[in-house]
Amino acid sequence: MDIQNLVYDFVGRIKSNDIEIYNEASIQHELAIFLRPILKDFYIQLERNISYFNYDKQKFEKKEIDLVIFNKDKSVKTAIELKFPKNGQYPEQMFSFCKDIKFLEQLKDNGFQDNLFIAFADDGNFWNDKGEEGTIYHKFRNLKILDKQIIKPTGTKDKIIELNGQYKIKWEDINDSIKFFIIKI
């Protein structure tokens, strides 16, 4: 199952205006609808709690998987986390991206394969080239690499996400107003 290529096919359907997206929930639902006839031998579920897979919720960054694909005996499992921020809060949303990536790393360490993080954005503040070195903006906009420690950018700055891998961010156009990137974990 090459889920990443299937997601690129899905994005192609958005580009050709066959599928309309307008918020994160619309992406979840449309992606599930798109995948079901292709992955007939798999369950495709939204917002599935990790306890369903007998995981201790206390040991994970999050409790629910945005979109999960698995076979009957749960020996093949793939998780997809999606983001489509609509209300600004750029540094907090970028940090939320990192939390989802960490969650996918944790799932991978516990038997999930070929996990994907997919971000959509219709606001240039997520991808423009401005950002002071050492900030979360710099990682997303200039450096375009997520790795190591990511410090919560606002408030008390008391939360740190420690990523195991190194992930390249490559924003790609969907249309004149929406871009996306995919990271495979």
Structural class: alpha+beta
- Compute the number of strand runs: 10
The string of secondary-structure elements, in order, is: HHEEEHEHEEEEEE
Order of strands, main sheet, comes to 1-2-3-4-10-9
Q: Return Rg in Å.
A: 16 Å
| Averaged pLDDT | 94
Count of alpha/pi helices: 4
The percent range for helix content is 25-40%
Report on the structure:
The chain has four helices and ten strands. It is an alpha+beta fold and 185 residues long. The strands form three sheets. The protein has a six-stranded mixed β-sheet, sandwiched between helices. The chain has a two-stranded antiparallel sheet with strand order 5-8. A two-stranded antiparallel sheet has the order 6-7. Strand 6 (149-151) and strand 7 form a beta hairpin. The mean pLDDT is 94.
Q: Which secondary structure elements does this structure contain, and how are they paired or packed?
A:
Elements: H1 3-15, H2 24-35, E1 43-49, E2 64-70, E3 77-83, H3 90-109, E4 116-121, H4 136-143, E5 145-146, E6 149-151, E7 160-162, E8 167-168, E9 172-173, E10 179-184
Parallel strand pairs: 3-4
Antiparallel strand pairs: 1-2, 2-3, 4-10, 5-8, 6-7, 9-10
